[in-house]
Amino acid sequence: MSWKAFLPVLLFGLGAAAGFAQDVSLKLPPPQKTGGMPLMEALNARQSSRKFVKDRPVSDQVLSDLLWATWGFNRENKRTAPTAVNAQELDVYVLRDDGVWLYDARLNSLLRVHHEDVRAATVSDLARQPFVADAPITLVYVCDTTKLSPKASRPDWSLMDTGFLAQNAYLYCASVGLGTVVRGSFPPADLAKAMHLKETQTVTLCQCIGWPAP
Ligand SMILES: Cc1cc2nc3c(=O)[nH]c(=O)nc-3n(C[C@H](O)[C@H](O)[C@H](O)COP(=O)(O)O)c2cc1C
Description:
Blueprint: H1 3-24, E1 25-27, H2 39-45, H3 60-71, E2 90-96, E3 99-104, E4 109-114, H4 131-134, E5 137-144, H5 157-176, E6 179-183, H6 188-194, E7 201-210
Antiparallel strand pairs: 1-4, 2-3, 2-5, 3-4, 5-7, 6-7
Helix pairs in contact: 2-5, 3-5
Bound molecules: flavin mononucleotide (FMN).
C-alpha cells in the first residue's frame, strides 16, 4: 500500500483515537468554593425528595460543585468528608443516561467506566420506586476494600464514612434547591455487575439527585 492509499486509514485511526480520548474523560469546570447558602439555612432546608423533573439535566458546573462538596480535596491530601484512619477508601460513581462515570477528585474530571444507563439497576423493584428512573443523576458510593487495613479498620467504618459524604451531598443539594434522597435498599450483586465493579469493591449507598418536581 502506498503512503497516499494509507493516509485515509491513518486519519481515521487518529480521529477515532481522539474521539476515544474525549469519550473516556470529561473535564469538569472548577468547583465554586465560595458563597452559597449559609450553613444554618442549608441545614434547615435539608430533606429527602422523591419527585424529580425527568428532563431537566444537572449542569456540569452544578455537578462539579456537588462532587467537590461531597468528596473533593479541600487540603493537600485531605477532603471535605472525614474517613476513619484517613483511609479515603470511598469512590463516588455518577450514573447518568449516558453511562457510568467515576469522579476523579484530583483531576476534577469524570472518567467513563462504560456507556450503559444502569440507574434502574440501583433498585430491586423500579415499580415501587419509579423516581429512581426520573432522577438524572444517581451517585453510588463504593468502598475500595484494598484501601482498608484489616488491622487498622473496622468493616463498618466504610458505612460510617459514607454517611459523611452523603450528608455533604444533602447539604449542597439543599443549598442550591436540588432534590435528593439516599437509598440503602439496592441489589448489591446486580448493581456491582451492572457497574462492572471489581470483587474488591463494595457499594455502600446510592443517592438520587435532580431538580425537584412539584
Ligand atoms: C442509611 C439510609 C438508607 C435509606 N434508604 C432509603 C431507601 O432505600 N429508599 C428511600 O426512599 N429512602 C431511604 N432513606 C431516606 C429516609 O427514608 C429519610 O431520610 C427519612 O425518611 C427521613 O426523611 P428526611 O431525609 O427528609 O429527613 C434512607 C436513609 C438513610 C439514612
